[in-house]
Structure formats: C-alpha cells, structure tokens
Amino acid sequence: MGIVGLGGLAKENAMRIEVPEDWGDDSVTRFMGDAFMNCVATMTNFRGLHIIQTLIGVNDLFFGANVIKCHPTEELLLPLFLGRAHSAYLGAVRLCTSGQVVETYMVARGCLENAVYALFIQDDPTVKEEIPDLVRIWGDRAESEAAGGECRRTFSSANVFGNLAKRDKELGRKALKIYRIAIDRGAHPNFAGHLTTSNVSLNGGHIDFLIPGDNVVCKACIQFTVQIGICTLKIFELAYGEKFASEGISKRLRGIECLLEKL
After folding, report:
1. 68-98: b or e for each residue (b if 16 or more CB lie within 10 Å)?
2. How many CB atoms sit inside 10 A of residue 157's CB?
3. What angle do CA 43, 44, 50 make, to 5 degrees?
4. Could you read off the pLDDT of 24-55 as tens digits, one per residue?
5. Distance CA 96, CA 229 (A)
6. Degrees (nearest 5) of the Cα angle 195, 94, 210?
7. How many CA atoms lie within 13 A of 87 on its CB side?
8. pTM score, two decimals?
9. What DSSP string describes 78-138?
C-alpha cells in the first residue's frame, strides 16, 4: 500500500500549478502558505544534516516495506496498519518541518499506535482462523456500546505494549518511553505541551502556530519524529518476520539506527 501525492503528478508538472491571485488573502490560505514555506526552508537549510537524511531514510524504508507481499488471510491487516503508520509518519514530517511542534506529537503518536496494534493482532493465537478473535473485536468496535467497550479494554495501552514487551523487552521499553514522551509533549493536552509554543501573561496570551526550523524545540521535534519512525518500523519488523530481512529492510533499518546514534 503506497502513498500517492499531488494526484500522482510528476515533479515537473506539479511545479507548474498556479497559485490563485487571492491565495493568502484569508487566514486559512495565508497559514497554509506560511507552513509550506517553513517546510521548504527547513528541508533546504538543513538538508545536509544527518537528522534530515535520517528523516528521508526512514520514509524510504516505509516505502520499501509497503511493497512486501502478505498472506491474503493470516496477514490481511498488516499492510493496512503499515500504510496508515506511514501516512502518520509523513503527516508528522510535514508538521515538524513546518514548525507545528505540539501537533507533531499528536500525529506521531498515531504512527506508533498503528504498529503496536498490528503486532498485537498478528500475535493473536487465533490469527489463522477465518475470523481471528482480535480482528473481530477490533472490527466490531462501532457496532454497539458493549462492542466498543470490549475493544477499548482489549486494545488498551497496557495490553498492546505488554504484548510488544513479551516479544522484545528492550524494544517494548523504548516504545513505551517514546509513547509517553509524545503524550507529555502534546499528544494529550497537558501543561508541558501547551507551554512549548505558548506565551501567557496577565494581559492575555497567544499561541505560536509555527516556529522557525532553527529553534531548538523544532529541531528536537524533528529528531523525535525520526525516532518514532524507526521504532515503528522495528515493531513492524517483528510482525513481518523474515520478510523484512529478505527484502533488505532490516539491514537498511540498522544503518539508519547507526546514523541516528551519531546525532
């Protein structure tokens, strides 16, 4: 499952899209323009840095993993979870490079959650049955209040991260730590997250929706996005098993990890 951008337009055609004359005359298109230019500035000014190269490298690994063929029944949902995790990663990339720091953590959290859900379902002892137990519970979530409650209890953070820890204790520890950092920094509304880009005084306050890419908070956010992308791929590596190795994803993933450690 791949990600399609700009309606599938080739780069040279995409660059010919004309911006309407009134673009930027209203608050929404003005913000969108500012956000896009921040993305361009971040990727241009810091393109030679290791952190940007790892940001790109992780995305390339997602694309590589997306082409892995899965079993039509026993691994039915794996490519769906992987594709959604990849989309969330790209969303986090766009947000962190534009300077929407707090919002990045909201989306990045979803990237990781898709991975632990995927592994949890794949590790279901009934995965080879026509309708595995966890697939039924997850799929029936919206059917009734009772079904929703069962799904929330079954797919609790304790259960999905606990399952990961059983498979790989160290990866489980790192994933849970990253998950909690995301929550602390803005994935849940909380004091620390709100203060990251907010200015509050007795005379009122305001929110900085976009901050420059050279801001230390923004740089930390970009690095976090890389970390959560790597962690997500390592969880999918457990779910896909030898397929990651046979497609060369595992080897490339180790190389990205080594590059990140040098930062």
Report:
1. bebeeeebebbbebbbbbbbbbbbbbbbbbb
2. 13
3. 60
4. 999 999 999 999 999 999 999 998 888 999 99
5. 13
6. 35
7. 12
8. 0.90
9. HHHHHHHHHHHHHHHHHHHHHT-HHHHHHHHHHHHHHHHHHHHHHT-TTTTSSS-HHHHHH
